[in-house]
Design a protein that fits this description.
Blueprint lengths: L1 H19 L5 H29 L7 H28 L6 H34 L3 H24 L8 H26 L2 H11 L11 H26 L3 H14 L4 H23 L1
Length: 285
Amino acid sequence: MFLQQSIAMSFSFIYFWQRKISLLNHGLYAYVLGLPLVLCLAISGCSFHEKKAHATDDVPTKALVSAWAAKGEWLIADLRWHESMINQMQGDPSNQSIVETHQQLLDQRRKEFKALYKDMEWGSIRLRQVKKYELARAVETRMEHLTFQLKKGKDALPKSQPQTQSTKASQNSAHRRESMLVALDEQVAKRNYPAVLDSVKTLTAAPYRQKKPDPRLVKAMQALQIEAEVLDRSASQAYRLGQVSDAIGLWEQALAYDPDNADIAQKLQRARRVADKLDAIRSSN
């Protein structure tokens, strides 16, 4: 509509100019002057309509406002969950890697919440610029609700209790157990099986015993069982060669590494009976 009006005004100007200038040769100048004016007005009219059409493209919609609110609720719930997990696992060295993972995710969620809050602030300002006051108030109400939920959730978290004597003792025990487990891993790598056996005995007794054994302790116990099998084969070979006393020593060591091995226990008993008979024969002679 604006473009049609602009063109009509331009041609009216041209017609007026031609009537005012009576000379025929001056009509050419009127067209020359009027044509650029027509083009300028046409271009400006198109630009005006394009700007008007795109002026509201970046204005938040109701669907976007609802999506902001839903994302904010989810971020707050995830923040609270990571904080509660960190609160529960702190103080136990065995959970240190899990605590660090939760802390990284917690920092990431905080950054996402700050970015979302800035988007909502911008949305409120933009809606007021285009005079959509009702939707702007809805955005501001959701921002206040999210802020309240964030503070409420933080206050609802279990607060750390002052450490009692038993709590301190438990933490000290956990630290010592972790140190022994690190040393045990090194002993297994060096194949220092007598030291591994001592560490296993300590870690499987109170106050270091756990309901679910640490994987490093399980690995050490398996290494002792494998070493017991090696000693069993060496003892059997010595026994066949008539070296009964050497076989008894090897089987005793193997049974110490694997106390539940009934086969090794039977071989050891048999070797001891043979040794007793040999001693009786030597004493009678």
